[in-house]
Amino acid sequence: MVKIYLFLSIFIGIAAGIGSATFYYAKGYSYMQDDPAACDNCHIMDDQFNGWQRASHRSVATCNDCHTPKDFTGKWFTKALNGWNHSYAFTTGDFHEPIQVNQRNRDVLEANCRYCHSTMVSGITFHETENTKIQCTSCHRSVGHMK
After folding, report:
1. What pTM does this model have?
2. pLDDT tens digits for range 80-98
3. Is residue 60 included in any domain, yes or no?
4. Structurally, how many domains does the chain consist of?
5. Is residue 131 part of a domain?
6. pLDDT band at 126 (very low <50, low <70, confident <90, very high)
C-alpha cells in the first residue's frame, strides 16, 4: 500500500512540475488578462493581431470583448476550453492554416456583435427566424481583423 502512495505521489509531482513548466513557458498566465498581446503569443496569431491593430474596433474592443461570452462563467469556460484546444492543436500541429474560428466561437462572436450593437440591429433582426438569420460577419468581415 505504501508503494502505491509513493508511486502516486511521484507521478502527481512529476505531472504538476511538467504542467507548471509548460504553463510558464507558454505564458499561460497572460491569457488570464485582457491584453490582446496575449493572443499574439503564438506566431499563428500574428495576422489576426496585426489585423486587429488596423481595424475599426481596435479603440473600442479587445479580443475578449468579441471572442468570449459576457457572463463570468461563460468567459472563463471559453478561455479554458480554447486554451486547451489551442494548446493541443499547436502542440500536435493539427490545425488549419490560415487559422479559422470554429462554430462555437463563431456563435459567441455573433452574440457579442448583436449585444454591443443591439440598438442598431434590433430593427433589422426582430423578424429573423433560424432560416433567415444572417451573421454580422457575412457583410462586416474586416471589422475585427483587417485583411
Report:
1. 0.76
2. 998 888 888 888 888 888 7
3. yes
4. 1
5. yes
6. low
